Design the sequence.
């Protein structure tokens, strides 16, 4: 692979393309790389969003993180949510994709509907689901009127149930994305493989295990990694749905960062937590990608 | 070659457009254009803001307002986000000034103007300076009650804590839900805790919050734990609606107005949400104390703070003063937000507002001689809580629904206090 500088110097490349690529690179550096470094610098200070200037305090913010019980709780919940939601959203996504892997017009319409949760803003998703899950909401109305429960269920009011409810909503959102990813992968599987499997006497279950699962392995890597990263930085849906409550039970790490920065006025400490979350996300994403890539080769 | 030149030219134009828009944004075409951060509630609607801003703009020629609406009622967090991104508004509605004064972000109002116009000129002062005109006040919480349901259960508005428990018990025995809460919104969940600690702890020691700042008292002290235990008692006895933490604030208003519960502990702003056809049905009493003495958790509020960075400082201050004294705005706030007016030399009649009997009765607590203490978690004066402690206080109230460890929850508040005052 040639270094990037060669690509820019290579006069055989179209000048227009090089300008556009340079513009993209500048935007990436300014809006992604630079803020990360600014945040890293801030994490070693006592920066306050209301005050000019800050003092260098070394590793004090990072040391404090070790004893911060609210941070610990939010990280544990975020990790549990990421693992649970990723598993559920990918299973549902694959099932939906298999159901929708047809070319008829009605299936194409259904595919669009399946993708809807992903394109709706997280804020709107939160508001809609809040309407569904509150005490007099749609779900409780249906359950009580059909006599499936005698009293409305406290979906967002008890800590454990609220945690599960948030998980269900986020899995619903992500299943739109995973469905599309798996659908694209399924459509690239040559039909001849299934024909050959049938001739060899493989039943539907064996065909799923030996052909479908193996052929969608690269899509699984992408889908699982992106799902994990999405949940690890989740903010908007939870903020609208539960505001992190009851009693911080559904507070994600991203919410805790915002609260620390803009309610407690501890921008430096919030930056340290953000750096930790970035490192955690990177380690998880790299580990999972490497693990799943190895699995792709094995398959 | 032509295609290449066109792409380069387009990129150049894009860059130029970006630069030119960055430098031409401040033009106001004559007078000053000021940013004003507001927020919406069921009472303070977009229509209210539009009308009130237009009226004050008319009073200060040359000033035009660009409204910035906070995405939630937590306007302090939003104001800080704006500050961090270099967009601190010129005018900020109903913020907690104590969080900004140390950083020198707010300019105090002219004290003689404040003294001249308001009943309690130092009602929300910080170190003697007023950053928000004390135009109105609130009692947080009051206990609203449904007279029909009280009559059905054969109970009267209570004065003491024991009477309050008895009323709850009788209502429950009569098959009536004693209390509506709306605890899905943390501030609403905390109403009983605010009432209990304000009345019991600050009622006996009005300087308690200042002493907490000094470190001589703590949330973990026995008197605070005893007061907080009252909320836990109400939870354990099942006096709140079923699934109280699964009911939003907006739904709690609808439920109470529909007669689904007999009592509703809420800030006095609920007065603005009582439907006219319920005016004779809904009554009000103060949060009950152990001995029945009248202690009112009180907060002097008001209108807007003015940024020291305001583009047109004089214009911003003139707009803020005009808005704060505008009779139409005050009338709208009284009727729509249940705000108790605090202007000097004026009676309720002078505002021409049409209010419910519950408003008139509770306003008598404001004008009468009684013990008024800071409503903990709501005061914006020197008694405002530090940092994000309001949020921690509300979270503690929600936690008391699922934990009997009252002392542990209060200890968490002490820990949060230490962090907030670092």
Sequence:
């Amino acid at each position: 692979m040639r270094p990037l500088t060669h690509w820019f110097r290579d006069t055989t490349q179209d000048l227009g393309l090089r300008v556009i690529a340079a513009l993209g690179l500048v935007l990436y550096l300014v809006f992604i790389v630079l803020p990360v470094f600014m945040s890293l610098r801030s994490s070693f200070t006592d920066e306050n969003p209301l005050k000019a200037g800050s003092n260098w305090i070394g590793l004090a913010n990072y040391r404090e993180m070790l004893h911060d019980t609210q941070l610990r709780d939010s990280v544990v919940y975020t990790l549990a949510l990421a693992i649970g939601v990723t598993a559920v959203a990918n299973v549902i996504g694959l099932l939906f994709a298999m159901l929708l892997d047809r070319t008829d017009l009605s299936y194409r319409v259904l595919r669009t509907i399946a993708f809807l949760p992903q394109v709706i803003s997280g804020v709107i998703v939160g508001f809609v689901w809040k309407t569904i899950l509150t005490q007099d909401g749609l779900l409780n109305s249906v359950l009580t009127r059909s006599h499936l429960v005698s009293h409305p269920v406290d979906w967002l009011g008890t800590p454990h149930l609220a945690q599960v409810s948030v998980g269900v909503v986020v899995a619903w959102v992500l299943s739109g994305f995973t469905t599309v990813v798996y659908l694209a992968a399924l459509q690239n599987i040559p039909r001849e493989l299934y024909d050959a499997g049938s001739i060899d006497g493989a039943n539907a279950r064996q065909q799923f295990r030996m052909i479908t699962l193996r052929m969608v392995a690269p899509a699984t890597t992408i889908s699982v990694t992106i799902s994990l990263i999405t949940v690890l930085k989740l903010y908007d849906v939870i903020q609208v749905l539960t505001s992190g409550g009851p009693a911080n039970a559904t507070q994600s790490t991203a919410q805790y960062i915002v609260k620390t920065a803009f309610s407690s006025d501890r921008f430096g400490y919030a930056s340290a937590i953000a750096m930790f979350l970035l490192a955690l996300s990177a380690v998880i994403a790299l580990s999972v990608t490497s693990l799943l890539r190895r699995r792709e080769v094995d398959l | 070659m032509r295609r290449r030149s066109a792409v380069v030219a387009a990129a150049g134009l894009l860059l130029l457009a970006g630069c030119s828009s960055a430098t031409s944004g401040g033009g106001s075409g004559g007078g000053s254009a000021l940013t004003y951060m507001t927020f919406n509630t069921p009472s303070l609607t977009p229509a209210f803001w539009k009308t009130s801003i237009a009226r004050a703009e008319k009073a200060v020629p040359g000033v035009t307002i660009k409204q910035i609406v906070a995405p939630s009622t937590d306007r302090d967090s939003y104001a800080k986000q704006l500050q961090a991104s270099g967009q601190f508004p010129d005018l900020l509605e109903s913020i907690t000034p104590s969080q900004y004064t140390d950083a020198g972000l707010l300019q105090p109002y002219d004290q003689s103007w404040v003294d001249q116009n308001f009943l309690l000129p130092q009602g929300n002062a910080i170190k003697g300076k007023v950053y928000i005109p004390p135009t109105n006040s609130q009692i947080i919480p009051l206990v609203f009650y449904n007279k029909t349901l009280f009559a059905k259960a054969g109970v009267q508005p209570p004065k003491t804590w024991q009477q309050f428990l008895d009323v709850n018990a009788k209502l429950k025995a009569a098959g009536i839900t004693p209390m509506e809460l709306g605890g899905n919104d943390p501030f609403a969940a905390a109403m009983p805790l605010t009432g209990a600690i304000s009345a019991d702890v600050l009622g006996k020691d009005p300087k308690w919050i200042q002493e907490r700042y000094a470190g001589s008292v703590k949330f973990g002290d026995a008197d605070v734990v005893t007061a907080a235990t009252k909320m836990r008692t109400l939870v354990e006895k099942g006096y709140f609606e079923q699934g109280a933490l699964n009911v939003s604030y907006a739904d709690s208003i609808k439920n109470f107005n529909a007669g689904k519960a007999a009592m509703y502990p809420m800030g006095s702003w609920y007065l603005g949400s009582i439907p006219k056809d319920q005016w004779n049905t809904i009554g009000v009493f103060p949060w009950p104390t152990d001995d029945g003495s009248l202690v009112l958790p009180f907060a002097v509020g008001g209108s807007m703070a003015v940024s020291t960075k305001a583009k047109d400082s004089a214009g911003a201050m003139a707009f803020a003063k005009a808005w704060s004294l505008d009779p139409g705005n005050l009338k709208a706030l009284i009727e729509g937000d249940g705000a108790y007016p605090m202007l000097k030399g004026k009676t309720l009649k002078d505002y021409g507002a049409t209010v419910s009997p519950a408003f008139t009765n509770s306003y008598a607590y404001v004008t009468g001689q009684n013990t008024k203490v800071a409503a903990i978690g709501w005061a914006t004066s020197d008694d405002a809580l530090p940092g994000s402690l309001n949020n921690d206080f509300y979270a503690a109230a929600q936690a008391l629904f699922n934990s009997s460890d009252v002392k542990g929850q209060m200890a968490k508040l002490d820990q949060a206090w230490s962090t907030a005052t670092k």
Q: What stands out?
A: The longest helix of chain A spans residues 69-100. Chain A has one domain: 43-298.
